[in-house]
Amino acid sequence: MQILRANGCRVIGFDYEQAKVDIAGKLGIIAVNPAWGTEQVRFVEEQTNGIGADAVLITASAKGNDIISQSARMSRERGRIVLIGVVGLEISRACYVDWQTALGAL
Strand, coil or helix: what is 2? Predict the structure, then answer.
């Protein structure tokens, strides 16, 4: 996150470990603990004025598919999702494809 900040990026981070959230906040990162009740997708939409994140870096470890699904929903159109961690990968095509745009390109 510090490398991204050094390159001028606005960084939003989520972590359930409060100590990490506190450290990130001191480094100028918008850091949130989802345990506070913050809905992550909505938070990113609010922080980006409804545009979504340019990129989502997933460094989590989870068996479920919720994280990959949330990443798609918080990403802007044609945004990048980079999986560094290990999460479930049952991907809903509807989350990743804007069918109106795709069909209009034909």
Answer: helix
Domain ranges of the chain: 2-104
Q: What's the pLDDT tens digit per position in 77-89?
A: 889 989 888 887 7
Q: CB–CB of 74/52 below 8 Å?
A: yes
- Please give the CATH number for the structural domain made up of 2-104: 3.40.50.720
Write the DSSP symbol of residue 43.
H
Q: Which residue has the tokens 């409804």?
A: 50
SS3 14: strand
Q: 73 and 95 in contact (C-beta within 8 Å)?
A: yes
Question: 34-68 pLDDT, tens per residue?
Answer: 999 999 999 999 999 999 999 999 988 888 888 88
- Between the alpha carbon of residue 67 and those of residues 5, 23, 40, 41, 94, the distances in Å are 23, 23, 10, 10, 15
pTM score of the predicted model: 0.80
